[in-house]
Design brief:
This protein is an alpha+beta fold and about 70 residues long. The protein is about 20% helix and about 35% strand. A hairpin with a 2-residue loop joins β3 and β4. The longest helix has 9 residues.
Amino acid sequence: IAHARRDEPAVVISARAMAGNGASRRVMEKCGLVFAGDFTWPSRTVGGRTYPESACVLYRTPEAGAADGR
């Protein structure tokens, strides 16, 4: 994140994970990202395999207008 900000200070960095993936959420928080909201990833077919609709979370850099106002 610091590397990206060095060249582009206003860049918005975001990450997404499955809502139940606590390990990924902790990594995003350790990187300085903050929770920005829940969303549903629609069902999709990739390479002939169908994936069901999934509950997900979005994290962003604080300046990106996170849900908690930071």
